[in-house]
Amino acid sequence: MSSNFEFSCGKYQLKLNRPHVMGIVNVTPDSFSDGGKFSSTDMAVEHALKLIAEGADILDVGGESTRPGAHPVSLDEELSRVIPVIETLSKLTTVPISIDTYKPEVMRQAIVAGADIVNDVRALQEPGAFDVVAKSQAGVCLMHMQGTPQTMQLEPHYEDVVAEVKQFLIDRMNIAIRHGIVKNRILIDPGFGFGKTRAHNISLIQHLDALNVIDQPLLVGLSRKSVLGAITGGDEGQRLYASIAASVISAMKGAKILRVHDVKATVDALKVVAAIQ
Ligand code: 7PM
C-alpha cells in the first residue's frame, strides 16, 4: 500500500515503513545566564533526552530564527544557541539530529557539529545553501512557504493552494537533484501555517495525499499550530488533542515524519496507525 522509503541522512539510514516522530527542541535564549542553575544548552539537551526516552525517532534543533513573526536572530546568536546542543546530542544519542535553519553558515557548522538533517523552511533558497548540503551527506527537508516569515500571514493568496504547493516542491526537489543532492536524501513538507490562511491549511490537510505523487517522503508539522486553535478554540497549551488528531490524519494520508512537541502521545497514536497500515 504505502511506499517503503529509505531516507539517507548523515550517518543514518531510516526505513520509513511506519510513521516516524520528529521531536521539536527549541533552544531559547539564556534569560538567566548569570545566577541561573541551567544554561539554555543544558535545558535543551535535557529536553531532547526526554523526547528520546518518549520514543522520538529524530530530534529537530532550532534557534528560533525561522519562527513566523519572530525577531530575526543574528548569525552569531543562532550559532551560539544551536551548535553546543548539537555537539552534545550527537555524542549522547543514536537518533538523527536535524538543524532547523535557513542560514547556510548555520547549516555548515551544524553538520560539522554532528547534524544529520537540514530542515529548511526556505527550501535551500538562500545563496550557498544547496552547496553546503550537497557537499555533505546530510538529508534535507524542503518546505513550502509563501512570502517571508515577517510578511507571510498578511495576505496569503493562491489560485489553487494544493497545486501550487505541489509544483513548488517538485521544482525545489528537481533543483536540489541538479545540485547533486540525491533523491533518497530529500524530504518534502507543505509548510502548514507558512503563508497560509485557515482555509488554505485545511485544504492542504484534506488533499495531503495529492503530494504522494511526488514520490518523496512527506514531513508534516501541524503540532500546536494556530489552524488547530482556530478549529478547537484553544490557545497554544491547549492543542494536544487537536495535534494528535492532525498527526493521525496526516499519517493516514501518507505522511512519513510528524514534527511534534508532544512526543509520547504522538508515538502512541501513531502505533495505532502503523498497526492498521
Ligand atoms: C510560531 C509559529 C512558532 C510556528 C513556531 C512555529 C515547521 C518547521 C516550524 C514545519 C518544518 C512550529 C513553527 N514549523 N519546519 N518549523 N515544518 N519542516 O510550530 O511545519 O514550530 S516553526
Strand content: 15-25%
Strand order of the largest sheet: 8-7-6-5-4-3-10-9
CATH fold assignment: TIM Barrel
Please give the radius of gyration in angstroms.
17 Å
User: Percent of residues in helical segments?
Assistant: 25-40%
Low-confidence runs of at least 5 consecutive residues: none
| Ligand set | ligand 7PM
Spell out the helices and strands N to C: EEEHEHEHEHEHEHEHHEH
CATH superfamily: Dihydropteroate synthase-like
Main pleated sheet: 8 strands, parallel
* The CATH C-level class name: Alpha Beta
Straight-line N-to-C gap: 8 Å
Number of domains: 1
**Counting H and I runs of at least 4 residues, what is the number of helices?**
9
State the total count of DSSP E strands. 10
CATH architecture: Alpha-Beta Barrel
What is the arithmetic mean of pLDDT? Answer: 94
Give an account of the 3D structure:
By secondary structure, the protein is an alpha/beta fold. The chain contains 9 helices and 10 strands. The chain has helices at residues 40-53, 75-92, 104-113, 129-135, 161-178, 198-206, 226-232, 240-252, 263-276; strands spanning 5-9, 12-16, 20-26, 58-62, 97-100, 117-120, 139-143, 186-189, 219-220, 257-260. It has an 8-stranded parallel β-sheet. A two-stranded antiparallel ribbon has the order 1-2. The longest helix is centred in the first third of the chain and has 18 residues, at 75-92. The termini are close together. Ligand 7PM binds at residues 24, 66-68, 100, 119, 121, 141, 143, 189, 191-193, 219, 221, 223, 225, 259.
